[in-house]
Design brief:
By secondary structure, the chain is of the alpha/beta class. Helices cover about 35% and strands about 20% of the residues. One of its GO terms (molecular function) is glucose-6-phosphate dehydrogenase activity.
Length: about 475
């Protein structure tokens, strides 16, 4: 029994850069044997051969591109010109599907404003059957109300069990390994709470600016674009209680509890515990980089934030009193994403009389550009004499020699869709709960008149972000780009 895959927006940027390469990676890995056809649908006048020509360079960029696999992939690929919000288009597609296939997978690689029309057309054309799976990705609304409207439109045609909401950070190897680290190793599981952990930092730093997304980004900003989904989803995996099993429902239920336990940031706390920033002209790699306002338009007086730092707290037994510091920004000095778990210092220093201070242990989980896990601890420096201490790094990452292949997050997530496993996808309740927390921050920013602080492109963000964490006697980690 074979699946058919339909990509709505099949000639768009997302499809070319991410979806076709991820599916081709699965072809290389022998994981598309249960897929009969991959069809891109678009209103543009692209011909199948033209789209394959545009697609090919993205596939050739994969390390192990193979001509034989390319031939097989082309054999599966079809293109349909038409409007996927019109039942006639989808009825035409229906006639090309595999007779007796096991199900249809529809990826909506289009803006959310198209979701409702596409779902209605799928229903009216008879394609929204129980075996159909529909994949969507952010932005899932711009606030709680708009998300609920988008979700209601999808829910008219599909059950929650059929909807796969992608957050590609959940497909990263290091993020998935976080579950194994926490729940398969007693040494970390026993220490994973406020008795031993001093604080947590979650950072997503980008060197790029808004590039081709300026209209979208200027309406959204860093808080909605990055914190509401990526950073909060990573926070959930760090902070969640052990699920009773790896069942998707159980894991999503535990993540939801975390989101509902986030302390609202209100009143005077909004200025103390959040920082907005916007990059101004600076330099990267010795080259002058224009300001955000210049990138979105010479006459722009945009107040949109390109940087956010937040001091968050989770009000439950495990994490009471442990701050979670979140930060994300564009045009930063380094491209790096990581989770830093900083443990508390030992309660008593037996080496104090010898003048040795004890640095806290750190667990660094790197998400990009390289994925890996490193544990920092103190050890005696080799040699005679005093017990001099030095910081030692234990690399817990999988050695390159043991890696069969480095898979893109989208490839992993597409494989999970094919397998019908929703573990790495986000539930409607999670999205709604995250929007509730984010909406209140936005409301408080507006009522308190919190403005975006300038920071030079190529820096580590506004000074106010360093002040915020320094107020607690802590400092941001140096990112390993």
């Amino acid at each position: 029994m074979a699946h058919d895959i339909l990509i709505v927006g099949g000639d768009g940027d997302l499809a070319l850069r991410k979806l076709y390469p991820s599916l081709f990676a699965l072809e290389l890995a022998g994981q598309l044997s249960n897929v009969s056809t991959i069809t891109g649908v678009s209103r543009a006048g692209t011909a199948r051969e033209e789209l394959l020509d545009r697609m090919l360079p993205w596939l050739q960029a994969l390390d192990d591109f193979d001509e034989a696999c390319w031939d097989r992939f082309q054999g599966r690929f079809k293109f349909l010109k038409g409007d996927a919000t019109k039942p006639d288009t989808l009825e035409s597609y229906k006639s090309t599907m595999t007779p007796g296939g096991s199900g249809l997978i529809v990826y909506l690689a289009v803006p959310p404003k198209v979701f409702g029309g596409a779902c209605r057309a799928l229903k009216e054309s008879g394609l929204a059957v129980p075996s159909t799976r529909i994949v969507v990705e952010k932005p899932l609304g711009s606030d709680r109300e708009s998300f609920l409207n988008v979700n209601a439109e999808m829910s008219e045609a599909f059950d929650e069990s059929q909807i796969y909401r992608i957050d590609h950070y959940l497909g990263k190897e290091a993020v998935q390994n976080l579950l194994a680290l926490r729940f398969a190793n007693v040494m970390f599981g026993a220490l994973w709470d406020g008795n031993y952990i001093d604080h947590v930092q979650i950072t997503v730093a980008e060197r790029v600016g808004v590039e081709g997304r300026k209209e979208f980004y200027d309406e959204v900003g860093a808080l909605r674009d990055m914190v509401q989904n990526h950073l909060l989803q990573v926070l959930c995996l760090v902070a969640m209680e052990p699920p009773t099993s790896r069942d998707a429902f159980m894991i999503r239920a535990e993540k939801l509890k975390v989101l509902k336990s986030l302390r609202p940031i209100r009143n005077d706390d909004i200025k103390l515990n959040t920082v907005r920033g916007q990059y101004v002209e600076g330099s990267l790699d010795g080259e002058v980089v224009p300001s955000y306002r210049s990138e979105v338009g010479e006459e722009s007086r945009s107040k949109t934030e390109t940087f956010v730092a937040i001091r968050a707290e989770i009000d439950n037994w495990r994490w009471s009193g442990v701050p979670f510091y979140l930060r994300t920004g564009k045009r930063m000095q380094t491209r790096a994403s990581e989770i830093l778990i900083q443990f508390k210092e030992p309660r008593h220093n037996i080496f104090a009389s010898q003048g040795h201070a004890l640095a806290p242990n750190q667990l660094r989980i790197q998400l990009q550009p390289d994925e890996g896990i490193k544990l920092h601890f103190l050890s005696k420096r080799p040699g005679l004499g005093d017990l001099a201490m030095e910081d030692v790094e234990l690399n817990l990452s999988v050695p390159e020699s043991r890696k069969k292949r480095s898979y893109d997050a989208y490839a992993r997530l597409m494989l999970e869709v094919l397998n019908g496993d929703q573990t790495l996808f986000v539930s409607a309740e999670e999205v709604e709960a995250s929007w509730l927390w984010i909406d209140e921050i936005i409301e408080q920013w507006q009522s308190a008149g919190v403005k975006a602080k300038p920071y030079p492109a190529g820096s580590s963000g506004p000074v106010d972000a360093a002040v915020m964490i320094a107020r607690d006697g802590r400092e941001w980690s140096d990112l390993e780009g």
